[in-house]
Amino acid sequence: MKRFSYFTVFAMAITMLTSCEVIGGIFKAGVWSGIILVVLVVAVVVWIIAKIAGGGKR
After folding, report:
1. How is the chain split into domains, by residue range?
2. Membrane-spanning regions, if any (predicted)?
3. Integer Cα distance of 15 and 45 in angstroms
């Protein structure tokens, strides 16, 4: 049940925030925070794509 409530809050936050509001919030927190966040997100996406494509198999 707790997992469902986390998912519900997350889904509501995503649908209520536009991309402009998210970017504005990131840069209000500071340019370096925004850069670090973007680098982390890109790294996670690349890691997921590598796992799906079978990058760890020999």
Report:
1. 2-52
2. 30-50
3. 21
